[in-house]
């Protein structure tokens, strides 16, 4: 495949990843409509099998709505440790072809294979090999998009789902972008899409018909991006190991927390998960934040920044608990708690002396 600027980009997207893992591991679930997530009144669908999607069940849909649309829907609690393990397997396969891997989530990633470790000239054949190896090693299917930039590669991976792949060549790129609804464009969320629609912009062709000056006037700094992308142009590079800005963990509880002891136990659990990541990666941070969402969905946060990076679990737990105690007495029941660590660094812990905490 000849590239417009010499780049060969692959976007790999696992097919209904969480649900497919559950169906792989439990043969009784195969061929049945399945949702990964909680089935309670406040539950949310994290992933849906293709059998469930036929009924309109989608991720982020309230579980009550999903069950109404598909009465035979089976709910399975998520097993994130299992999904993370499978994701590591898949990334090890990617690494056999290129070091330029940009993960977007556990189940998708960009790969730049312009120059690759197997000296293969065809990105199409690389994508076929990767998908076959994923199936062989994990028993799961993946879809792939191949193009000369990230935007079009991601669009292409949706084109032949599930278990397929699609190529958008330089000769196809501009026409492909023109036919897309504006909501499909990178960087266009619901609010921006609604604004574009009010301006009479519904497709890539509508965007392309506007001048750069018009787009800058209405969309500011994003104007040049929309001008380029409506022409099938995207200069973003595949960036491996993108630096994290924060590490966080949060949980929505099936029953509201009403007692301080339960709240503090929840905070300690979230802090433990954050610290587990710190231990695995060597990352530390200086700002601890506790997130609280009440039963009425009102949300608040409490943060504290220490002088030097937090270097042990006990300190992270102590700061987190002190922060949540600042809301006592509890104004109302709590449905969600989260703990995060930001102002990150990778300094060696043994070289850092932990200072006494002053949370007054």
Describe the model:
- The protein has 360 residues and is of the alpha+beta class.
- The chain folds into four domains: 17-78, MutS, DNA mismatch repair protein, domain I; 81-168, Reverse transcriptase/Diguanylate cyclase domain (Alpha-Beta Plaits), CATH 3.30.70.270; 173-229, 5' to 3' exonuclease, C-terminal subdomain (DNA polymerase, domain 1), CATH 1.10.150; 246-351, Dna Ligase, domain 1 (2-Layer Sandwich), CATH 3.30.1490.
- The protein contains 13 helices and twelve strands.
- It has helices at 17-25, 50-53, 63-69, 80-94, 123-138, 150-157, 170-179, 190-198, 204-208, 212-219, 223-229, 260-281, 313-325, and strands spanning 9-14, 34-37, 45-48, 74-76, 101-105, 108-112, 142-147, 165-167, 246-257, 284-294, 299-305, 334-345.
- The chain has a five-stranded mixed beta sheet with strand order 5-6-1-7-8. A four-stranded antiparallel beta sheet has the order 9-12-10-11, covered by helices on one side.
- Helix 4 (80-94) packs antiparallel against helix 5 (123-138), helix 10 crosses helix 11 and helix 12 runs antiparallel to helix 13.
- It is globular and about 65 Å long.
- Mean pLDDT is 89; it is low at 347-360.
- Keywords: Cytoplasm, DNA damage, DNA repair, DNA replication, DNA-binding, DNA-directed DNA polymerase, Magnesium, Metal-binding, Mutator protein, Nucleotidyltransferase, Transferase.
- Belongs to the DNA polymerase type-Y family.
- InterPro entries: DNA/RNA_pol_sf, DNA_pol_Y-fam_lit_finger_sf, DNA_pol_Y-fam_little_finger, DNA_polymerase-Y, DNApol_IV, IMS_HHH_1, Rev_trsase/Diguanyl_cyclase, UmuC.
């Amino acid at each position: 495949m000849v590239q417009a600027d010499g780049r060969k980009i692959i976007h790999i997207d696992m097919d209904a990843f969480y649900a497919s893992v559950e169906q792989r591991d439990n043969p009784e679930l195969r061929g049945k409509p399945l949702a990964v997530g909680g089935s309670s009144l406040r539950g949310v669908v994290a992933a849906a099998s293709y059998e469930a999607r036929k009924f309109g069940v989608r991720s982020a849909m309230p579980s009550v709505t999903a069950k109404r649309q598909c009465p035979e829907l089976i709910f399975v609690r998520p097993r994130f440790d299992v999904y993370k393990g499978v994701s590591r397997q898949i990334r090890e396969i990617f690494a056999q072809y290129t070091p330029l891997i940009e993960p977007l989530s556990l189940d998708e990633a960009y790969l730049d294979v312009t120059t690759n470790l197997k000296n293969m000239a065809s990105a199409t054949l690389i994508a076929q090999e990767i998908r076959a190896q994923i199936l062989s090693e994990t028993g799961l299917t993946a879809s792939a998009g191949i193009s000369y930039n990230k935007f079009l590669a991601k669009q292409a991976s949706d084109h032949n789902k599930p278990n397929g792949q699609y190529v958008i060549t330089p000769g196809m790129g501009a026409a492909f972008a023109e036919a897309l609804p504006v909501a499909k464009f990178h960087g266009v969320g619901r609010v921006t899409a609604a604004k574009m629609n009010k301006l009479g912009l519904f497709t890539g062709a509508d965007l392309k018909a506007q001048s750069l000056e018009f787009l800058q006037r209405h969309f500011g700094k994003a104007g040049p991006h929309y001008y380029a992308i409506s022409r099938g142009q995207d200069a973003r590079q595949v960036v491996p190991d993108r630096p994290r800005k924060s590490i966080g963990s949060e949980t929505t509880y099936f029953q509201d927390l009403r007692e301080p002891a339960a709240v503090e136990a929840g905070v300690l659990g979230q802090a433990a998960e954050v610290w587990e990541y710190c231990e695995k990666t060597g990352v530390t941070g200086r700002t601890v934040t506790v997130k609280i969402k009440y039963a009425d969905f009102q949300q608040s946060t409490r943060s504290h920044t220490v002088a030097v990076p937090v270097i042990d679990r006990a300190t992270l737990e102590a700061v987190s608990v002190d922060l949540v105690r600042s809301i006592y007495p509890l104004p109302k029941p709590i449905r969600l708690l989260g703990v995060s660590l930001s102002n990150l660094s990778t300094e060696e812990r043994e070289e850092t002396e932990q200072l006494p905490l002053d949370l007054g």
